Every structure is written in structure tokens, then in C-alpha cells.
Amino acid sequence: MKKIYGRFIAIPISVLTALSSLHYFSALADTKDISENKQVTVHFDISGEGVEFDKDIDGNILEIKDITADANSSVRLPEHYLVRKGYSFSGWTDDGVRGYPIDSVFQVGEEDVTLTPVWSDLNNKTSYNIEYKVEIDGEDTELPLTLQNLKQFPGTLVKISLLAFDYPQNTYAQIGWVYDSNTYLGQQCIIMPEHDIVLTPNWLKYYKLKYTAGDVDRLNGATTGEFDRLEKQDTGLAEAGRFSRNGFKIIGWNCDADGQVYAPLSNYMMPSQDVTFTAVWEPITYNILFMGNTGKADDIIKIEGKTDTAIICPEFTGTKTGYYFDGWKFEEKIDGVTQTVVYQPGDEFIIKGAKPGMGIYLSAVWKNGTPPSPEIIYGDANCNGEVRLNDAVLIMQSIGNPDVYGLEGSAQTAITERGILNADCYNRGDGLTNMDALAIQKYLINIFKELPVKE
Q: How far apart are CA 53 and CA 36, in angstroms?
């Protein structure tokens, strides 16, 4: 016989009080969210023959009334005793198996529940054995005196021991005791039947719960994490900040055991197997700041965009005495080296994302003196350095729908002042007309050999 000493589980007294009256063993029950606004009733059935209410010291009857509570909450049972000739009142039960002492905490579910009194017959002098039997690695274990020679009369409440045993190599952990296929936590109660009972440890095995960032780029720091978790136990899943990735955030965890996606910090019942959760990433939406650096709040431009998408660098009308605006400067570190790129209004800027907690901004480039005269590329309405059919399309759009595509239109691709200067390529000086768009089309099919055209 092995001699393995038990240990008391370190649980605060307040928690033990709650655990002692749980309606269901938490390791085996489904976790449910609290049902908003749903009310349930705890009814006390005292209709048995000869049942009376107890009285206080002044002779007043202490009635026991039904309790209304929120679904999936806890209630405290009445502290009053019941009286019945020839019997002792032990507590309450809802199934004839589990007992709940007076003034204890009772967990309600989502349905009304009826509790009935538990009675011990004072005329029944026969007691029965309560045996704790512990087997580890196939051998019986010697028990401490507190678990030996226990007897109780039928109808009394047997409070389950808090003692738990260590398993070699910590491959298993004991969570409560098992009797008649039911599991009881320490301090929960069994209604003593009219026969001996045997309690055995509820051994639960440890399995691996692994987190992985997945096969993705732009990760910072750790990419995996692994933990030991007990089977059939609720565990809180990792928070959204478990892994760090530039430009992305975790919105869930994909479970390889059941194929479902769970929200960060949600409850998960650990199965009897190893489990891997892979991060589900979503691109972050940024407010890209274009800083005018003029000291004026109005000269800060914000454009919204998601990681791995493109935005159009805006035109800038701010001024700075003695300087002229010469583009938008963006700096980033690549392999530890700072790289600088200057974008011109109308250029595409690809949002690559930033480290968590950091923003993305571009700064105005100011140069001394007056701006050089811009090079005119006749027909280049969208200012991309080429003359194509889409330049003709933009001219017609800006004329036909100026609120969207005209100067200061709402579209990102709206024509700019520079674009208007380039686009005036037919009878230059008469402003934008459909003839400018037609001239570009004729130029592209070699009817006009060059732009601008004067007729």
C-alpha cells in the first residue's frame, strides 16, 4: 500500500462557501451567459405531512417564502429550520441525492426549481459507512485519519472532504470525489442513503493547450505559447494581445479540435486531447495623418484606410512664409535602417501597418524660396506621368460630375489644379472642355501627332 499524503486545496473561504452549494459540478456543466432580464423562482415545497415552521424566541412563526432571482445567479437559502415530529431537518434537495444546508448559497439555472426538505428519521438508529478509497498507479493509498471510520445516519448531509491527493509527475489532478457516477467538490453535500457509500478521487488529466500566431508576416516577439490545462474544465482563452503583428489585430482563435472560432477571453471547455488555437487576424483601420507642420490644426489632413490597402496622397493648400510645399515625407525602419520616401499629391501610399499602439503619419516637406514652375505633361489629367485613355475619362467625369470628380471633389481620384493645367490640351487657355478629352483620344490613335492642339 502506497503512503501518499493528501493536501488541502488552497481556496478562499468565500469561494468554498459558494462551491458548497453549487447545483451542478462546474467541471461537468455547460457554461452559459447570464440571461438578461430572465427571472426564475426557487420554490420551497413544505407540503409534507406534519411539517411545521420553526418559531423565533418570541414565538413568532418563521415562514419560508419563495425566492425570485436572475437566471444563472446565486441565492442564499433560508436560515430557518423546519419542524416535524420524529425527524430532524437536515436541509434541502432538488433531486433527492444532493443536499444543501440551510443558509448556504444555491446556484440557480434558467428554469424554475423546487426544493424539498431533507429529513433524518430519529427512530432509525442504523448508521452506514462512508469510505474514501484512493488508488494511484494501480495501488491503494494509505489514507489520513480524517478520511477513516466515517459513519452517518440516513437523511443526514455528508459534507465531502476538501482533501485532495497528488499524482506522480503531475500528469493528473484530483478535482473533487466521485460517488454513484456523480462528482462532488469539497464541501458539497450528499444525502446519506440507507447503505454504505464509497467515494473515489475524480482524476482529470492534463493536456496541452497551444496558441500560435499562424503563418503570417510582420510579427513581433513570440509566435507560440503552450500551457497545461485539465480536461473537462473551463479555461479562459488568451486575450487579443497574446501576439503582436504590425497592422493587424486578433479578433478570434480558430480551434483545431472542433473547427470553431472563439472570441478572445471567452470560456472554453478543455477536451480530453491536446488543442491548438490559431490566431484569426483582421487588418487595422488607421487614420493616416498628413502633418502640414505649419502650426495650424487645420493643416493636418486625416485619411482613413486599412492595412495593405492604398490611399491617395492629398493636395495641400497650407502655406509657410518663405517656403514652398514639396511633397509628403514618410519614414520607416527596415532591418534597423531608417528609410525615407517623399510622395507627391496624387501618389498612392500603401498602408503597411504599424506596431501596436503606434500611428502612421507623413510630414510636409518645405523648401526655401518659391516653387519651380511645374512641368506640364499635356493630356496627363490624373498626373501619373503618362497620357492614357483614363485621362480623357477623368476630364469628362470632372465636367459631368464636378461635385465628385471636379476640383476639390469628394472622390480621391478627383482632378487637381495640376491635372487641370495638364488636361487643357485643345485650344489651350479656354479651360476644360469635352474637346480636351476628344483630343487625347485622337492623340492615342495617332490622328493628332502631339499635344497640345490648336485649331
A: 35
Cα dihedral 25, 28, 34, 39, rounded to 10, equals -60
Contact 67, 75 (CB under 8 A): yes
Answer positive or negative: Cα dihedral of 307, 310, 314, 320.
positive
Residuewise pLDDT in 10s, the chain (455 residues):
444 444 443 333 333 333 333 333 333 333 344 445 799 999 999 988 899 888 777 777 788 999 999 999 999 999 989 999 999 999 999 999 999 999 999 999 999 999 999 999 999 999 999 999 999 988 899 899 888 878 999 999 999 999 999 998 889 999 999 999 999 999 999 999 999 999 999 999 999 999 999 999 999 999 999 999 999 999 999 999 999 999 999 999 999 999 999 999 999 999 999 999 999 999 999 999 999 999 999 999 999 999 999 999 999 999 999 999 999 999 998 888 999 999 999 899 999 999 888 999 999 999 999 888 778 999 999 999 999 999 999 999 999 999 999 999 999 899 998 999 999 999 998 999 999 999 999 999 999 999 999 88
How many CB atoms neighbour CB 432 within 10 A? 22
The pTM for the full model equals 0.66
Residue 186 DSSP one-character state: T
Contact 78, 57 (CB under 8 A): no
- Closest to 28 measured CA to CA, from 145, 173, 184: 184
Q: Residue 390: which of 378, 400, 382, 398 has the closest Cα?
A: 382
b/e per residue, 53-63, with b = 16+ CB within 10 A? eeeeeeeeeee
Q: Which three cell numbers stand for residue 296?
A: 495650424
Which grid cell sits at 10? 488552497
